[in-house]
Design goal:
This protein is α/β, with parallel strands linked by helices. It has a single domain (4-287), classed as 3-Layer(aba) Sandwich (Rossmann fold), CATH 3.40.50.620. It is built from ten helices and eight strands. It has helices at residues 4-21, 39-51, 69-84, 112-130, 142-155, 158-162, 187-196, 213-227, 231-250, 272-287; strands at residues 30-34, 56-63, 87-92, 135-137, 167-168, 177-179, 257-258, 265-266. The strands form two sheets. It has a six-stranded mixed beta sheet, with helices on both faces. A two-stranded antiparallel ribbon has the order 7-8. Strand 7 and strand 8 (265-266) form a beta hairpin. It is globular, with a radius of gyration of 19 Å. It binds adenosine monophosphate, FE2/S2 (inorganic) cluster (FES) and zinc ion (ZN). Residues 259, 261-262, 264, 271, 273-274 line the site of zinc ion.
């Protein structure tokens, strides 16, 4: 039986070793920590603020306008950030005239998580730029990573596979580096840590995600792990050590330019976020104001 204090110590050492191994905080003086209110990012803000007290940290919460759920997550994110003494920046997508559930009336209906992912990535990066943050840390864990890799390898999406890595370097001043300090931690380990440190978190899933393909793939990976213990670690290690070095050689160097609408970096004239936003705003115009 391992005691609480040893468990906390073990977890923190493991996260520190991941951060150092991949040079995640090399040259980073100010860091944005993306917090959702869920167990992973609540563990993330606690462990990073404890391990790296000299880094200037700001937590970022994107309020997605999901009825009840987004408010509940905000309350928890506020509470934990206050506890660990990290300033919290909140951005509400409703200030831009829509909320995430409005995507249900667009062609993104069945891929709402994908659209939501674009919205979150865009705002996290934009806030990092506006606040002069060098990098953004997210709470993606080993299970999230294996689930995404599983799908991408299955579909043979080579370019996308090459983007799944612990550190994505920043480009110029408008594209912050992205780091995933919990990429080697399992869901269970994050859960133990938040429980052992009495860190509050929202237990329920986003209502728009329930029953999604992503959830079913995660369930499948849990079943494989039961039959083949260590499956997640083995898959991840093969990706990092065997595939990624070769894929990175292959991956094309993309030419970035500024979006004609918002000025943020993009590979085409208009960035994917501005395209997404104009589609959802058309729907909001047709059906009434955001959230109604
Ligand atoms: P998810 O994409 O929901 O699996 O979340 C992965 C990570 O993205 C979380 O651990 C957070 O770091 C970040 N994240 C998710 N949702 C939000 C949000 N609403 N605001 C800020 N960061 C978020
Ligand atoms: Fe993005 Fe639920 S949090 S769809
Ligand atoms: Zn744009």
């Amino acid at each position: 039986m391992i005691c609480q204090a040893c468990l906390i110590d073990f977890y923190e050492k493991k996260v520190k070793s991941t951060v150092l191994k991949y040079g995640m905080l090399k040259g980073v003086r100010s860091l944005g920590v993306a917090v959702s209110g869920g167990k992973d990012s609540m563990a993330l803000i606690r462990v990073l603020s404890h391990l790296f007290p000299t880094i200037n940290m700001k937590a970022i919460y994107i309020h997605l306008g999901i009825p009840e759920y987004s408010d509940k997550c905000e309350v928890v994110a506020r509470k934990v950030c206050e506890e660990v003494g990290v300033e919290l920046i909140i951005h509400r997508v409703s200030d831009e005239g829509y909320i995430i559930p409005d995507f249900q009336y667009t062609p993104f209906k069945s891929r709402i998580c994908g659209a939501c992912g674009t919205v979150k990535r865009y705002h996290l990066n934009r806030i990092a730029y506006e606040h002069g943050l060098d990098a953004i840390a997210t709470g993606h864990n080993l299970d999230d990573t294996v689930e995404v890799l599983f799908e991408l390898y299955l579909r043979g999406e080579v370019d996308e596979i090459a983007r799944i890595r612990p550190v994505s370097p920043g480009i110029g001043t408008k594209m912050a580096a992205r780091i995933k300090p919990l990429i080697e931690m399992t869901e269970e380990e994050n859960l133990y840590y938040v429980d052992a440190t009495n860190t509050p978190y929202v237990e329920s899933w986003c209502p728009l995600v329930k029953g999604s393909r992503m959830m079913r793939r995660k369930e499948l990976i849990r079943m494989i792990e039961e039959k083949i213990p260590g499956f997640r670690h083995t898959f991840f290690k093969s990706h990092i050590k065997r595939f990624l070095p070769r894929l990175e050689e292959l991956s094309r160097h993309v030419q970035l330019r500024e979006c004609e609408i918002c000025g943020m970096p993009t590979t085409s004239n208009i960035c994917s976020y501005c395209r997404l936003r104009s589609r959802v705003l058309r729907v909001v115009e047709m059906y009434g104001k955001a959230g109604s």
